[in-house]
Amino acid sequence: MAERAAESSSRTISDELSSQIVDSEHNAKETSEKLAKKREEHQRTRQDRAEKEAELIRLKEAHAAEISRLEKEKAEYGTLMRNRGVEAGKELGKEEFKNSEEMERDLEFNTCLNLRWTIDRVGSGLYGVGDLALILHNKIVRLGFDASISEMRVLADDDERDYVEGVLDRSDPQITASALPPLSRERRAELQRAFMDMFLYIYFYITMSGAGDEENDAVLSDVEADDLAPINIKTAPENMSVEKFKEILAELDRERRAREAAENAKSDLQVSFNRLKVLCHEAIKKRDECSRQRDETLREKEEALKKLEKASADLSEEIKLKEDITKQKDEIVRQLEEVGKARESNRIELETGSSMLVSGIEKISRKVSSYKDFGGNGLPKSSKYSGLPAVAYGVVKRTNEIVEELLYQIESSNKLRNEAREQLDQRNYEIAIEVSQLEATISGLREEVAERSKEIESLRQLVDMKDARVAELERESSERLESMKGEISGLSVLVSENESKIEAQRPMLINQLNYVSKVHNELCEVMKIVDADKSSELSEYLFVAQETNMEENIKACLAGMESVYELSKTVVEKTRKVVEERGREVKSLNETVSRLVKEKEKIGSLLRSTLSQRMSVDLSSKTNQLFKVAENGLKETGIGFQAFKGEVDPDETEQSEVYALASALENIIKQSQLEIIELQHSVEEIRAELNLYKELADAQAKELSQCKLQVEELEEKERVANENVEGLMMDVTSAEEEIMRWKVAAQQEADAGKAVEQEFVAQLAAARQELEEARQAVIETEKKLRFKEETALAAMAARDAAEKSLRLADMRAARLRDRVEELTRQLDELDTREATASGLSRPRYICWPWQWLGLNYVGGPRSETPLQAAANEMELSEPLI
């Protein structure tokens, strides 16, 4: 029973210690598993966030592609409308040019010059449309030409009909056109063309009516006070104006349809913009969802930290429990020390203790049999010891083997843990290497972006007027992109996309460079035509497109555009100078013609006055006055003439003077006519040159418009490149920030892992120390328990012996009472016998205690009686008393 109690108590203590060790190991495993789960959850959260950010990047790319597509459609539509406008302008210009050529062939020079001068004044803005309408209105009212008014009203739309009617219905010629509301440039050009056609039509009517009355004019009708000289023209078709009006109406219908198409395209663009707006809202919602999930992840991390703190609190409670157990152990040790005082008196139970040791060590061996089998050959034996020391030696040896095996297992687990730690450190080192490589890649990308920004910086001189808009777009893009955080994979995708875009733009840049070279050559040819003296100073365009080097192509294109710009500016200046020189020549010729016309008028007036004076007054009294007047007129005209003075016959003198004056006037008139003819020829030549210069100016204007379009395209490309560069810079900065955050987080996790590892190492060392202490305490406790069990067994045996002694004492007291009674009876009998028996038959002496003890008195008989058996039993129990 005592063995069972001691065995059960030792078993409970060892079970408690093993359960505590298992619980601590289990808690450590649970903590490591929780940390692993949290790390996996954190990794999954990072992956989800990366996927969401990649999805945001894809949405951004789709948004950019949609915007580029809309811009491309808008540019194509603008190009189509410009081409249509250019073609319509070309056709209309060709028709007007043909009509003007026919008119110039049919009309005389002065009338055509006056008409062209009026139209040019209207086209250049010196005369307004309202002024031309007043002129036409006066002509129409004077001639009664009402059909043109109705046709002019048909030309106008509903919004412009009041304008045209207000212009045409004014009867007061003093009203200016400034009182009328302004028109757009397109409608101004249309009404200008319509008024020009009406003016030509009215002028045809005027010239035809003038041609019918040509025979009824006087001989000197060419010097009358009319503004224009009589002309001979061919009959023009009267339906030309109606056809022109129909063509203009068709053109208006086409423009209306084009405007409707533009409105439809605008509505489509609005729908696309709304769709993009919805996509942007969805992207913002997804960004908010990502932020919410990130907050949830942070909250979960905080909860994990709280749980870890709770686990640490539980661990501290377990440590307190262990301290209580140590206190209990101290109490047990103290009790065992008290029990150890009875060690010497309990040597009898050494065999029992040895058997308990053997059974206990066998149980312990069975418990650790999962690591190693210790029960094959029994306990280890020694030749030095025997008995209980040999058993203790075997138990200690076996315990040492078990402890060594446990230490080996702990060392192997530590080795595995160190290997796992080394693998973790290796993985952290690899991650650091990858991060450094990514940083190097990002720095390379940054350098490439810096180089591209330096290349693009040269193009920013052409877009200074758009800096405000670009800054606003950059601010909006920065505000929009600050919320987006791109991963390194997103950067690689963007870089590959940019490279593909650059590869796609390379042939377009090569074609543009070729066209720039062609434009440069054409401008050189124009410069050779305009200024042959400086054509030798021009250098040919030596920029050649390269298939591989995009930087050289961009630099060459920029240099070519600058050269084209400088050359076009020089050509424009030279053309302007030539046109101004030709204009001055034309002006001088016009002044000469007007001067000659005035001289002709003066000569005609002088001749008329001379003839009238000669026919109305006396010859003798009026001759001197006539000669004076003629002399003054000739002096005014620059002809040196003086009347003859002398003693000659007055009639002959007068007649000769008249003939001389007439011949001089005839010579003057012939000379004037020759000069007029020469001036007409020179004017025609100058007009041909002006037409040539106008064609050259138109060609240069077209080339300049193309250059402007190319410049706008380059500006657009520069803007897109700036946006791409800014986007890349923002992506690089966000990536750097993200990398720094991840680096800091990884460092923090590594520090936390190291701290946890150190804590686990400290806990493991403490647990190992506690295990060693517990093992020592178990050994001491087992010893003390064995001593206590032995003492308890001895006490129980002593109690049983005491009880047995008490029972024997009671039995002895009863027997002694009976014996005393028997002795008193025997004494009575002996007293009675003494009187009767003789004295020789009595023994020599008797000692009653020896008789009570079963001894015979000297000389007495030996008899086996119950009293003797009782005495023997009492003798056997005497040592126990």
Automatic annotation (TrEMBL):
Residues 1-52 are annotated as: Disordered. Residues 7-22 have a biased composition (Polar residues). InterPro entries: At3g49055-like. The keyword Transferase does not apply. It comes from the Eukaryota. Residues 23-52 have a biased composition (Basic and acidic residues). Keywords: Coiled coil. The keyword Cytoplasm does not apply. Residues 245-325, 403-476, 669-731, 757-833 form a coiled coil. This is Uncharacterized protein.
